[in-house]
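dumping this here before i forget
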Amino acid sequence: MTRVTLTMQGKIAHVQLNRPEKLNAVDMEMIDEVVAVGELLSGQSDLRAVVLSGAGKAFSAGLDVASFASLAGGDAGKFILPRTHGVANRFQQFALVWQQVPVPVIAALHGPVFGAGLQLALGADIRLAHPHTRLAVMEMKWGLVPDMGGMVLMPKLMRADVMARLIYSAEPVLVEQALAWGLVTEAAEELMPRAFALAEAIAAQSPSAVRAAKRLIGKAFEAPPAEVLAAESREQVALIGKPDFHEAVAANIAGRVPRFG
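structure:
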């Protein structure tokens, strides 16, 4: 892989966009590599958390316009309309694959986070941002609409009027506004240390409970209340009495750090 790097720090995966000379502009090669890494991590049973970041001066400045110019003069439908990943196409899977990774994904954002880069970040469970980060839904600038999963991911985070403002104007917003609107979870001056500290804190929890919680959080935004309540009960029953549960209880009673397998 040339556009993405994957390194492991214990049971935490660090996935980094690796095109710093282009501000991590997204081309087809990057899309395919990000999807491949996400799908690889989805099958790792000992994974505890993922940190997603960008090398260099930006998380991602958005689409590499030169790489996609050929679509404008050709049959864009043959690239965009086929459902290659369940209900999604390959462009949408670029962001949605992180929802399918069974452990929490933390996006560490800095510099410009525009267009495709923002939609990728929205696929994470948690978004930390350096105070100087700028975020924008940039597609309208190019006469387009968000089409990389953003129309599924944004409604979970913000009001309809805020979403409309971001899409229609294509104007970048700063972190303070992004926090107020729900685009960003937390501002962090020391971005990468904070991202990995949070990942370590998550990794120290019961791995089976963390995975169950991610399944429940995903369902909470999509299913009717009765289905969510039933899922709560099923997940809880599946946890009680199991090894991770016993270790969490024993560690708390003894006042020690739990040791999960």
